[in-house]
């Protein structure tokens, strides 16, 4: 077993290995970035734990909406088909939006993917542990239950951290399922029966990883389908605008038009023979702005120079539903799914958001109270005794007004859960 653990540690990046050892050395879960390693000692009790979901901000709420509303299986027989009851009706969820450190997609542009990968594993550690904070508190609390599954509801985090988390979970020997959204998005492309070209709208970091073109091509190839032209466009602005970040003062529609135009030009550069038809919303924030993005492509199509590059009717692929389906199958296969009539240890779901830990000496803030941009993107991994952010309960009041409006109108199940 020691040899296996050593091999796992060699297989992950140095920063992830440091975090694995740090958590193991603080097995009671009291220290920063650690968790109670005994939480999964009873298999039956593990089944009754909640499911963890995380993203770099509120965009992952689109995935949570899919989890709360999916009805693709019969709950009693587990066979495909709707039965009028949400597939996760018995389950409860803990959501973390790491808003203080977002956008994740920008770390690669400043050569800080090492720190990004550490942040991603830290998100998983939070969900595994009990350690939280109150908004005004200066000491942590330990009243959050651990989770039995982790859904990475962030495309960038999946691209850079999925394997790190899976290997860390294996090294810690905890029976926790880990599901990411990118593979689900590629399956969504396959199921859309694409006939034209494919465009991926994502963050700068996700596009830099090339994870979507690679995964889509392999998914279509394994299914015996030809691979059409795939173009991608990485945005450093759209996710922040959807979040309501003051650094992006224009409307979401303005940023959507800019990115749609850039994607179309990237597609043109590939010299396609068919119009752009399938758009992958490769950032979990983007489904919140699907209407604005679709309107942008419609407007661009009025330009004679772009008309033939864009299909009149476009298919949008949102990886959220496919992710929900995969989680259902994984829970059922691992016998971790709650059965009808059983209850989770949580009565209601819990929501958390990261905020700057202003009392920590050495952190730098911008005028609006968020982490200073230069400070945020200059940090290095390995400082596991230093916490410049803390995870506090997320309430509707903490969501910027324009983002709250989008959530309320387009994610009603999440809004209802948030407003409890």
Description:
- There is one protein chain.
- The protein is of the alpha/beta class and 420 residues long.
- The chain folds into two domains: 278 residues, Rossmann fold, CATH 3.40.50.1860; 136 residues, Rossmann fold (3-Layer(aba) Sandwich).
- Helices cover 40% and strands 14% of the residues.
- The strands form two sheets. It has a six-stranded mixed beta sheet, sandwiched between helices. Strands 6-5-7-8 form a four-stranded parallel beta sheet.
- Strand 7, helix 12 and strand 8 form a beta-alpha-beta unit.
- Helix 2 runs parallel beside helix 5, helix 4 crosses helix 13 and helix 11 crosses helix 12.
Number of discrete domains: 2
Given helix and strand content, the structural type is: alpha/beta
Helix content: 40-55%
Task: Kindly estimate the percentage of residues that lie in beta strands according to DSSP.
Answer: 5-15%
- Strands in their spatial order, largest beta sheet: 4-3-1-2-9-10
| Average pLDDT figure | 91
Silhouette:
globular
CATH architecture label name of the largest domain: 3-Layer(aba) Sandwich
Total strands: 10
């Amino acid at each position: 077993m020691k040899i296996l653990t050593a091999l796992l540690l060699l297989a992950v990046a140095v920063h992830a290995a440091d975090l694995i050892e740090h958590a193991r050395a603080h097995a009671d879960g009291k220290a920063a970035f650690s968790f109670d390693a005994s939480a999964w000692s009873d298999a039956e009790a593990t089944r009754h734990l909640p499911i963890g979901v995380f993203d770099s901000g509120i965009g992952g709420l689109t995935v949570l909406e899919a989890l709360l509303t999916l009805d693709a299986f019969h709950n009693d027989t587990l066979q495909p088909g709707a039965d009028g009851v949400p597939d996760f009706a018995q389950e409860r969820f803990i959501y973390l939006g790491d808003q203080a450190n977002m956008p994740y997609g920008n770390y690669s542009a400043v050569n800080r993917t090492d720190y990004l990968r550490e942040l991603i594993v830290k998100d998983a550690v939070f969900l595994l542990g009990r350690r939280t904070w109150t908004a005004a508190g200066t000491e942590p609390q330990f009243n959050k239950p651990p989770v039995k599954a982790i859904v990475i509801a962030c495309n960038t985090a999946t691209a850079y951290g999925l394997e790190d988390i899976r290997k860390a979970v294996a090294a810690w020997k905890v029976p926790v399922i880990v599901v990411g959204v990118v593979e689900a998005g590629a399956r969504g492309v396959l199921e859309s029966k694409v006939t034209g070209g494919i465009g991926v709208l994502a963050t700068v970091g996700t596009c830099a990883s090339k994870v979507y073109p690679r995964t889509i091509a392999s998914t279509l190839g394994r299914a015996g389908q030809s691979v059409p032209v795939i173009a991608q466009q990485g945005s450093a602005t759209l996710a922040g605008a959807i979040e309501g970040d003051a650094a992006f003062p224009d409307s979401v529609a303005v940023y959507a038009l800019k990115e749609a135009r850039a994607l179309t030009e990237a597609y043109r550069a590939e010299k396609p023979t068919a119009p752009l038809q399938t758009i992958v919303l490769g950032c979990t924030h983007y489904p919140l702005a699907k209407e604005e993005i679709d309107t942008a492509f419609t407007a661009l199509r009025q330009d004679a120079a772009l008309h033939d590059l864009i299909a009149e009717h476009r298919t949008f692929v949102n990886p959220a539903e496919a992710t929900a389906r995969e989680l259902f199958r994984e829970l059922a296969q691992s016998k971790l799914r709650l059965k009808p009539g059983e209850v989770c240890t949580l009565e209601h779901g819990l929501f958390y958001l990261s905020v700057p830990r202003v009392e920590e000496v050495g952190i730098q803030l911008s005028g609006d109270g968020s982490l200073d941009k230069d400070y945020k993107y200059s940090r290095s991994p390995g400082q596991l005794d230093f916490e410049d952010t803390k995870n506090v309960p997320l309430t509707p009041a903490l969501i910027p007004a324009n983002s709250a409006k989008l959530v309320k109108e387009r994610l009603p199940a999440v809004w209802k859960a948030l407003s409890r």
